[in-house]
Design goal:
The structure is a single chain. The protein has 462 residues and is of the alpha+beta class. Helices cover 34% and strands 21% of the residues. The chain contains 18 helices and 21 strands. The chain has helices at 2-8, 12-26, 30-33, 52-61, 81-89, 127-130, 144-147, 149-165, 179-185, 191-212, 237-243, 278-286, 342-350, 362-369, 377-384, 409-418, 429-432, 451-454; strands at 42-47, 71-74, 100-104, 118-122, 172-177, 217-221, 233-234, 247-249, 251-252, 257-260, 265-266, 268-272, 291-297, 304-309, 313-321, 327-335, 360-361, 395-399, 403-406, 433-438, 446-447. It has a 9-stranded mixed β-sheet with strand order 8-10-12-18-13-14-15-16-17, sandwiched between helices. Strands 5-1-6-20-2-21 form a 6-stranded mixed β-sheet. It has a 3-stranded antiparallel β-sheet with strand order 3-4-9, with no helix packed on it. It is globular and about 70 Å long. The structure holds zinc ion (ZN). Zinc ion (ZN) binds next to helix 9.
């Protein structure tokens, strides 16, 4: 917030004038350069929800031509901003997958064992990762991200430019644009404004070169992708649960209650339910219209996760950590191949990567599955039920593109009016694949937790 108040005191023409004066003063007199306070040598821009395939298309059109080819940043599962940015920036895992979490009530004793009970509550954790950026939109203006997202993106980019040219004595300037995601949630096409940003970053690089004689390093990263489907159907969650004797609620009081809650219109939702009915509820939801697959942490063995897909397809992921802390995973089919991972099992086997008991190093799974329809699924599913959020759900339902669930009365009205469909959250490649690109180094496909292997964020405002 401190930096933002400083950037407010500079108008756009001011930095441009400053830049051109400095440029003309600097170019003939090289000795003066060292005496001037240094600008950052690196600019990192976070663009929320920009999909890999969108950026690939723009580079094919000739935009972002000073950048190396875009690579994938595969999001967390669910592919949602709060947990994905926390994963990228290595901040504490939020309580829930987005701004809501399940708070379990634990009353009762041995004589009167507690019935399953708890509530969906707001978390207020969303801002922790956000506050690390040198620029992110102040809370007062976040309303604009939904009302006029296109204009707000331009404002955010301009503020990043101003902030960058008025920062000294810092290696990297970090700017965050949230409205790229909101624009898509509101049914807009993000490509025109991304083409405009391509021109803006080129201008920044040119001005920087004139001022310093150096080349500015620019990195652009996003946290997840987008389904890019214009209209979507709402899944019949309440009716499906009711037909099987369960009650959809945000306040669970017994083992017939199924607590579900999250933020907005999404293609994923976590389910909190009593352990005794968990497998049955997961099974019921896997057969619901619009569901792509359901993941369920085994009620007895947390190292085992069931994957269910329509028509009774069931697979299981098992995890094991060796004495050096290395993660090994095994995927096996009980019936069918819900993740379509059996061809990968075969390929890894042929490549000699499989141990005698069928386990494979996580790193090998990862490299084999970046371009799969469910990229890096095993590790992401395991983390989804374990460490990616403070209160992980026993069940997560991932929807097919073109299907959504909406939360809150306001969203209910919006969805009825607009049938909005551009969203994210699911395990599939459209929702999962964000971007990583640099004008300095060729990047490689990675996962949110490993972005910093390629892009150091050591001078982040920790
Ligand atoms: Zn979003």
């Amino acid at each position: 917030m401190k930096l933002f108040s400083r950037t407010l005191t500079f108008s756009t023409p001011f930095w441009m004038i400053t830049a051109s004066i400095l440029g003309s003063v600097l170019s003939p007199i090289h000795t003066a350069r060292a005496e001037l306070p240094a600008l950052p040598s690196r600019l990192i821009i976070g663009v929320d929800g920009v999909a890999y395939r969108t950026m690939q298309e723009l580079q094919q059109e000739g935009f972002y031509k000073t950048f190396f080819p875009v690579s994938r940043t595969v999001s967390t599962f669910p592919s949602l901003s709060s947990i994905a940015w926390a994963d990228i920036l290595h901040t504490r895992a939020p309580l829930g997958y987005d701004r809501f979490h399940f708070h379990a009530c634990q009353h009762g004793d041995m004589k009167h064992p507690t019935e399953f009970s708890g509530s969906i509550l707001g978390s207020g954790d969303h801002e922790e990762a956000h506050d690390l950026w040198d620029y992110h939109i102040p809370s007062l203006l976040t309303f604009g991200t939904n009302v006029a997202p296109g204009k707000t993106i331009r404002l955010e980019m301009s503020k990043i430019t101003e902030g960058f040219f008025s920062t000294q004595g810092k290696v990297t300037y970090y700017g965050y644009i949230v409205s790229t995601d909101n624009l898509q949630h509101n049914g807009g096409d993000v490509r025109p404004v991304l083409r405009w940003i391509s021109g803006e970053v080129e201008k920044i690089a040119e001005t920087y070169h004139q001022m310093t004689g150096q080349d500015l390093e620019i990195v652009i990263v996003s946290d997840h992708g987008n389904s890019l489907t214009a209209r979507a159907k709402k899944v019949p969650l309440r009716q499906t649960l009711r037909a099987h004797g369960y009650h959809l609620t945000q306040k669970a009081k017994n083992s017939h209650d199924v607590a579900v809650g999250a933020d907005g219109i999404l293609s994923v939702f976590p389910v909190y339910v009593d352990a005794s009915v968990q497998a049955e509820v997961a099974n019921v939801l896997s057969e619901m219209a619009g569901v792509e697959l359901v993941t369920e942490r085994d009620a007895q063995n947390p190292n085992r996760i069931w994957i269910r897909r329509k028509s009774g397809a069931i697979g299981v992921i098992e995890k094991r950590v060796d004495e050096k802390g290395e993660l090994f995973l095994r995927y096996s089919s009980i019936s069918g191949d819900p993740l379509s991972y059996l061809p990968l099992v075969e390929r890894l086997n042929l490549a000699g990567k499989t141990m005698s008991d069928g386990f494979v190093k996580n790193e090998d799974w990862k490299q084999a599955s970046f371009d799969h329809e469910f990229p890096v699924a095993l590790e992401r599913i395991v983390k989804a039920h374990d460490s990616v959020a403070g209160t992980p759900a026993p069940i997560i339902v991932s929807l097919l593109d073109g299907h959504v669930i909406e939360f809150g009365a306001f969203m209910n009205v919006v969805q009825k009016l607009k049938h909005m469909g551009q969203t994210h959250g699911s395990l599939n490649s459209n929702s999962s694949n964000g971007i990583l690109m640099s004008n300095r180094i060729p990047t490689v496909d990675t996962t949110t937790d490993r972005v910093t292997d390629q892009v150091s964020v050591s001078d982040f405002k920790h």
